[in-house]
Predict the 3D structure of the following.
Amino acid sequence: MSLSNILDNLSRFRQDAESERYGHHDYEHRFGMAIDLDICIGCNACSTACYAENNLPVVGKDYFEQGQAMHWMRIERYWDDEELEHPERGASFIPMMCQQCGAATCEPVCPVAATYHTPDGLNAQVYNRCIGSRYCSNNCPFRVRYFNFWSFYESSWPEPLNQQLNPDLSVRDKGVMEKCTFCIQRIRVAKDSAAREERNMIDGDVITACAQACPTNAIVFGDTMDPTSQVSLAWKKHEVKRGPYTHKEAKSDEEIRGYRVFDELNVDPSVMYLERVRDSEV
Amino acid sequence: MVQVIAGSVISSLTLTVVENIHRMKMMKGVKVNRRSFLKMLGWGGAGTALAGCDMPTTVTLEEGKEEVVSYLSPEEYVIPGVGVWYASTCTQCDAGCGLHGRVREGRALKLEGNPDSPLNNGKSCMMGQSGVQTHYNPDRVTSPMMRKGNSLQAVSWDEAMAELGKQVSSVSGDRFAFVSGSLSGHQSVLTSELLSKVGSKNHFAYETINTSIWQAVSKDLLGDAMPVIRYDKAGVILSFGADFLATWMSPVHNAGEYAKFRQGERGVLVQVEPKMTLTGGNADLWVPAAPGTEGVLALGIANIIVSRGWNKVDVPASVKTELAQYDLNKVEKITGIQGSKIKRIASLLSERGPALVLAGESTVGQAKGYEAASAVMLLNIIMGSVGTTIEPSVSFPENALAAKQGNTSSLKAFAQGLSDSKYDVVFFYNSNPIYSAPEALGVESGLDKVKFKVALTMFPDETALKADLVLPLNSAIEDWGTHVAAYQGGSATMSLQQPLMEPLYKETKGFGDIMIALLSKLDEGYKQFPDYYAYLRTSVKNMPAELTGGALASDESFWNGLLQKGVLKTTGVTGSLTATLAVAKVGTPTDHLDQTSLTLIPSARLGLWDGRHANIPWLQEAPDQISKVVWDSWAEMHPHTAAEMNLKNGDIVKIESKSGSIETQVAITKAIHRGAISVPMGQGHKEYGRYAKQTGANSLSILDPVFDHKTGELATHATQVKVSKTRKNQILIKMGGSDVQMGRSFVRTVSADQLRRTEGGA
């Protein structure tokens, strides 16, 4: 079962990658983000909001040291690689979370199809199906998959902290891989509401916890298949398209700021970043 | 009380809920296919199952009757599985942001910003998000405790209040003191009432992180203590250590305004400070002036501006002459900043205006901090910022409700009073000076001379454990309150805090409830109020029309509207600005010329704040924004300084001031001046629950008792320390393996020129 599954996945992935469809065949939505690194201030509001929304465990100092922190949304901070006495241009911050790739490298390697692509354009992780092979995290170029090496329930939520847990999603136990879901529980609620009202979802029906918290509105979330959504407009303005790697040269102006991290790997990430700006005359 | 909460909850439904109910009603008429029917069943089922665990399912077999209240007939407006959002106010710092809290099956689950609040416009910070972990914290005090012999023992509220009443009614007025953090709204009114009934003037509002000196200088030079700062109107912001994105004034509000400043015609941010703050990390140019020399740099820049005639406001010849002594060579020598860079900053102020110049902690935290801030303000005046990027204050029209802001000069006065044995009864509310006051002030030993110490607190902090009576408070999520933020960015708003859920513990009480109970013992008039809610309700009913914007406050719908929106926006009183041109006699610290000592920077963090959030696991595990270190303290040192002492990351160093010493691990970074060592404040609690206790070192404890000579504020950046290596070391635990991108270009950077070409702007 597992070997044929891998082969099936792989061949479908390759087929899709070479076709115009590029990825899943019958999307209902393709949720995506646009993150402006010029106004992201690196304050950690998004990351903490994610802990609150998604039942992320606090692993403690020792496990953090072993790289087992479960921060689905993390703010990476880089210094300019220069031989200056001080970082004169400040720091470079980037919020990094699962990029919900259209041609995700994590998906075809899962021996049990615990990670798969949903009709919403998300890389879903089925916790009940996951056997903890960790192939997916090994294959993720963004390093955004987090494995539960331990059962954190007792240590992370001593009573009554456990009362804060969001009942809309589970607490993951030992042996399970997890990652950013684009707040799938919020998407579900919005979809159900829209269905009840017999209407289509509209932009603004869903907002992820990170985007909702962001004090500078650096994160824009929405459906990239809805041409009128904020996120679609941002992608369009910055000339980033779904599908394979968009070369800078292919844009109407090379200097347009939109890019996707590791786009050159042809994984079709759903998150567009806008380049950080520094005033070099200063 | 319970009934009242339920009543308010019902009336405070936000639109979301109303919509949801509408949707539920509509469901009846909707054709349901098999799949969506099963889905609905699944959601409902999950909700019911959960609800069974913790909702009013009361089975009293003892009484011989069973009463099972199932969700088949839920409380009105409570829909199993559907979150309901209520408006309230954040109390994690004193910025007073509005909140929406999500409540499901009787539990508060998630906090978001309230879009109706003009302060935070629906946004929140990491501390605001963590409000739920303050509330559900496993280390809360759950019953009143009284000192009996040497230990604190649980007592009943009756016993506690009887003792409290006895102490308060017998103490002579001047021997009573009330120590709190910043206070506003009706909590402030009740505190003042208590003090006046006791006959005391000793209210010490104490906050380590404050903007007192900025306000004092604004008052003296602009005639307005709290002018509105228009980041969005500025073309260039020159900030001398003001970490406005993280710890200065109203961080979430500021961040929103900062985003406007960066978009459209992109403004330029220059940050001058010895240790990089979050704001510094976002600067176009980060300038590490030698610690304590920012005032000189400001005057040096002013000198260039007036000598080239770039000033937008006429400058008298006398001022020019005074400024002339800050010639470029001298300023370069004192500050250690290249002359060319200083000139560039001066020309930026003139070319990229409108300019906005700010002064924050590293600049004002000096023995001559007032003068340094005055020098900075001079730049605002000569660049014509007053009236453009600095606008007159707008203040809340009811003075009694206005913020009584905390500062550190009150801490100094309190410590002095303690050492003079001036007090018999002291109340501590939201204040933990044994932890956060420098040890040299002798607060801990001084408290031994106080006969009766009362701590109104949620947590067993250092001060509470020294107290004679500990009264457990409701969390912000369980309590009523009103808040009028000190800085409102141009609006005049009162924000309402309402309980999002019933108290977790039976034996905790609201601050207002305790105050009302105590006041009833001193004044018959307060007996009409059974609790704080009743008092608040009556106070709001009696609000004059100028506060309510013409609405009739006694009308029930006014109160319901307030509960629903969470904010009362009113027409503020606009101040006026009159600039006074004067050249301050700034100090030039001579201590750091001593090559063997470093300046200690106890920098404030958005996260642990002044140490009050060290007991929140999310915030302990959130990496520091700049160093990315977690769960511990660390000492930031420049690679050059570290190399001289042969130190590497994780080596434990002893940091010794005249007043004490701490030990912590080294974290080497280029984002600090060579002559400085930074140990962020907030860690090193001796008590305060499992997450805070024994984690890291308390850098506030070893500060020398140096105060700004004019305002009496603690000079937080004026302590010189000797650093010595110990033989110990540990692994420096931080997020991320590499500090540089190694050519992988996750974060790509482009020039502002390029941005202007592609996205417009000037």
Notes: The longest helix of chain B spans residues 34-54. Residues 1-32, 36-60 of chain B have pLDDT under 50 and may be disordered.
